[in-house]
Design brief:
This protein is an alpha+beta fold and about 650 residues long. It folds into three domains: about 80 residues, Beta Barrel (OB fold (Dihydrolipoamide Acetyltransferase, E2P)), CATH 2.40.50; about 290 residues, no CATH class; about 200 residues, Sortase (Sortase, Chain: A, Beta Barrel), CATH 2.40.260.10. The protein is built from 16 helices and 13 strands. The strands form two sheets. The chain has an eight-stranded mixed beta barrel with strand order 6-7-8-9-12-13-11-10. A five-stranded antiparallel sheet has the order 3-2-1-4-5, with helices on one face. It is elongated, with a radius of gyration of 31 Å.
Length: about 650
Amino acid sequence: MKKRIVTDRKKAWTFLIALLACAGFAAFLFWLNQVERPELTTSVGRTFEKAEVVKILQDNIQENGRRYGEQKVVLRMRTGPHAGEELEATSAAGYLFGAGCTPGMRVIAIQSVSGGVTVTSVFSADRGWAVYGLLLAFALCVCLIGRKQGLKACVGLAFTFVCILFLYLPLVFRGFSPFWAAVLVCVATTFVTLLLVGGFTKKSACAIGGTVAGVVIAGTVATVFGYFSGISGYNVSNIEDLLFLEDSTPLKVGGLLFSGLLISSLGAVMDVAMSIASTVEEVHTQRPELGRLELFRSGMHVGRDTMGTMANTLILAFAGGSISLLVTYYAYQLPYLQIINSYGVGIEIMQGISGSMGIILTVPIVSAAAAVCMAPSQAAGEPLFSADRVRRLRARAPGVVKKYWKAAVLAVCAAVLVFCALRLYRAFSAYAAGDREYGEVRSAVEQAGTQPTAARATQSDSPAAEEEFRFDFEKLAARNPDAVGWLRLPGTPLSYPIVQGKDNTYYLTHTFLRSENKVGAVFLDSRIQDGLSSLNGILYGHNMRDGSMFAAVWKYRDRSYFKEHPALELYTKDGKAECAVFSAHEEAPDGGAYRWSFPGKKEYGAYLARMKKESLYDTGVAVDPADRTLTLSTCVGDDRDVRFVVHAKIPAG
């Protein structure tokens, strides 16, 4: 009876301490999340609302069952200022944007309001119920199969998400080292999760120590590899966005790559650590007479099987989405030296191998720790790290290497190839998504009497085959308040809206509708205060390999292309201007072509004369200081740090 009372008191005190710890942690997170985040983009007049499709006004399904172009539908708004109203909308029905609408279907709509004009389009199907349903099914499976332990596992998983969202992110936005912020998250989640699953036992202590050690080892291996290979957090694909964040916040971009590695490898390392600790504990329970060496051997026997499967799992987890990219790389026959020395492949190799090394080294660490903690110190048997055992391990090492080196090399090569396939798939899916989005924008802003596909490369290059392009500037501005005009090159795919952002980095990786996409947008230099009314309006756009965006600008290096396309069309709220091309040449990124302000007519005239002189060929177009100019800048079609610029004159008046 007395023992039971003491036990109940211990449980009460344990519960009280845990409750106080949770309250203190919650208060700390509340304080930590009072971090100021600058307004990086404006979303004024643009909201996402729930809606239901009432009817289809114009469908886009073809005879082959595929969808091309866009649908015109009627939506009944379920939320927002227009809730209950029926509004006409468009749906691109793309794979990444829009949806194949049917009557009764619930969707998420984008509403853009500018003045008295409201433009509505379908963003995607409303899949919130599916997400919540899947989460509920997962939780039920874990709880029904694991029962009490399953419930504890769900609590641990929820705690992990809380730590990532409300501990890690605020820390890095406050300027804390991303690497050590990730270490803190790993320690906290490991401590709570393993204590929930294993309780306050020696097993849990060994698993916690081994998990933390394995994760730190993975981070250390990645850091060393990054140092010798020249790879850092600045070599990731979305570095433009991150640099913009670094300029606007205390965020330390360089450490994000390695901190992400720690978090991504945590689950696998934790799994291995708890498995080994549980195995050693179970063996000790069944055979308490076994010494430390025997327990260590038992842990290593199980660990060898576990490390083989878990290391493979982690590598495949990093490269699992790369099959499509592999197919494309195979088709393009990219050279080995290009693949193995690219930053993307190096990063994936670093993540997969360093995480796997963390798993592998966790096995002996936990096996040794559990054997020391659980076995009696006077048990019979050979010491854990005796000289004879070390000699035997050294003698066996060459045989192990000889036996498994082929499998190891094959695994590394497979991981590299799978990663390459993923990267190329992402690139081409970005092209397709950007093309669909800009097609939807063209259809939404073009006025009646135009030919919506006039700018497509599949049409005739003859200007006579095209109808005059006209567009509604108010509708364009309603889709994005940063809009300042539209640029076209008749007979080519170049037909895009022009935006001017707060800086020259955001629209490098975001489309006109502010979707994150490497296609980007055509944008006016943010430093030009007079907009397209300045003496020299400088426009930037990517030279995309699929022929979109400013790929047509790069083609002006060929004089025959200029003869086929001698003039650009610039549309603003003031009307249309035919801009005759008078110069095309290469330029350094910080060269003299990127001037937009001039003290007087004399300096401006000298600038025009120099640009015309630097042209690759004589266009025969005269230009004088009475004309305003338009400068189009894009990357060259190779790896040189050079830009290709085309100058066109905007006639006076």
